[in-house]
């Protein structure tokens, strides 16, 4: 299935859900939005995870400076131009304004204001301490109040706990699928579709897991194995294609559309011993040490995590992983930390390519040359 077919299917899915009376809540993709609360309230979470192109980026410049994250530009461009395969954006009922980064805030506020989509607010602390955990719980309860005002009924703790269990099981299955030794393009295609649809995709995910478990790569000596960290690789992006054309194979996605999502799993004993579901969501936020909302030790945690992944892979396969730090141009989080991340990992003997780019088609040849040179050099 190509992305155009996926987007066409997704449009039909959202229309069917809307006919059932459900509301669609969109948000710019990051790893701390409580999807379980949206699900418990009967909403459809729509995670914006679509890469852009020249036209989408250009369309945003009436609203936002060109020196803004290319992904945020693309999100605005999608709502501004509504390309044919994104007509499902007309079905969005609410938009969450959150503060994953400056571009997230700006783009979300612009989309809500200029395209007349009612906003919901959900703000986060960048720090991890006792006060920030209290603040996060306060935001969860406030978010719950916002949703209850829309639906006119109380969101019961039992309903929220059921949603937490549902998403927890879904993420476990995603992790199981991620551990399969298959081509990175195939893996990403399924991961993207799964995260876009959510737990309703579980039967199809299990089917894919069974199918690919019987068709894993048996002899990958000629492949140059890669881990991608930094910014996510979104739907309609050609980056993985360039890596595979250069002889590489992405075995792990250390990003929002990847580890940061499906590693947020609770043990069954923790769920069973916790009476208040909001305490579980706070605990997940506290344990989310590898997302870039983890001050002051994000970089140290990230370096440690990547080092562990690389060492485990070396012990398992005898092969050294190459690291591509994917930086979407003007990303105020990842770009500022890229030099330090590369320095720390290279000191530990891990090869790193800081790959900064936007979604312009004109950059494709240059990106291809850089990736090929990096994979050949190591």
Written account of the structure:
With about 375 residues, this protein is an alpha/beta fold. It has 2 domains: about 5-155, 3-Layer(aba) Sandwich (Rossmann fold), CATH 3.40.50.11890; about 220-375, Rossmann fold (3-Layer(aba) Sandwich). The chain contains 16 helices and 8 strands. It has a 4-stranded parallel beta sheet with strand order 2-1-3-4, sandwiched between helices. A 4-stranded parallel beta sheet has the order 6-5-7-8, with helices on both faces. Helix 10 links the parallel strand 5 and strand 6. Helix 7 runs parallel beside helix 9 (about 200-215). The radius of gyration is 20 Å and the shape is globular. The model has no long low-confidence stretch (mean pLDDT about 95).
The CA-CA distance between the termini, in Å, is 33 Å
Return the domain count.
2
Helical stretch count? 16
The CATH class name of the largest domain reads: Alpha Beta
Spans where pLDDT lies below 50 across 5 or more residues: none
How would you classify the helix and strand content by structural class? alpha/beta
Give the overall form. Answer: globular
> How helix-rich are the residues, as a percent range?
40-55%
- Overall average residue pLDDT: 93
What is the percentage of strand-forming residues? 5-15%
Query: How are the strands ordered across the major sheet?
Result: 2-1-3-4
What's the total number of strands? 8
How is the biggest beta sheet arranged? 4 strands, parallel
Order of helices and strands: HEHEHHEHEHHHHEHEHHHHEHEH
**CATH architecture tag of the largest domain:** 3-Layer(aba) Sandwich
């Amino acid at each position: 299935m190509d992305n155009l077919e996926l987007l066409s299917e997704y449009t039909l899915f959202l229309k069917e859900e809307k006919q059932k009376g459900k509301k669609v809540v969109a948000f710019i993709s990051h790893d701390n939005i409580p999807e379980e609360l949206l699900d418990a309230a009967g909403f459809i979470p729509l995670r914006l995870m679509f890469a852009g192109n020249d036209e989408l980026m250009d369309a945003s410049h009436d609203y936002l400076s060109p020196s803004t994250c290319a992904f945020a530009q693309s999100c605005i461009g999608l709502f501004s131009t509504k390309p044919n395969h994104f007509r499902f954006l007309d079905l969005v009922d609410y938009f969450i304004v959150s503060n994953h980064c400056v571009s997230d805030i700006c783009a979300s506020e612009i989309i809500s204001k200029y395209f007349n989509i009612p906003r919901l607010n959900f703000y986060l602390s960048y720090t991890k301490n006792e006060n920030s955990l209290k603040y996060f719980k306060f935001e969860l309860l406030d978010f719950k109040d916002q949703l209850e005002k829309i639906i006119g009924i109380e969101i019961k703790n039992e309903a929220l706990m059921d949603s937490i269990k549902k998403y927890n099981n879904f993420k476990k299955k995603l992790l199981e699928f991620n551990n399969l030794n298959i081509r990175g393009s195939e893996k990403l295609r399924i991961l993207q579709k799964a995260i876009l649809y959510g737990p309703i995709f579980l039967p199809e995910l299990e089917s894919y897991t069974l199918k690919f478990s019987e068709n894993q790569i048996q002899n990958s000596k000629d492949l140059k194995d890669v881990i991608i960290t930094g910014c996510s690789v979104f739907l309609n992006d050609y980056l993985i294609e360039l890596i595979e054309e250069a002889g590489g194979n992405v075995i792990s996605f250390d990003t929002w559309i990847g580890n940061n999502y499906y590693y947020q799993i609770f043990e069954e004993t923790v769920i069973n011993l916790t009476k208040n579901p909001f305490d579980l969501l706070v605990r997940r936020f506290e344990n989310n040490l590898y997302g870039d909302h983890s001050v002051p030790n994000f970089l140290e945690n990230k370096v440690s995590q990547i080092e562990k992944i690389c060492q485990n892979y070396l012990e398992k396969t005898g092969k050294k992983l190459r690291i591509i730090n994917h930086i979407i141009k003007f990303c105020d989080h990842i770009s500022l930390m890229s030099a330090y991340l590369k320095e720390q990992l290279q000191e530990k003997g891990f090869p790193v390519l800081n790959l900064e780019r936007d979604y312009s088609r004109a950059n494709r040849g240059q990106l291809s040359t850089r990736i090929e040179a990096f994979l050949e050099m190591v």
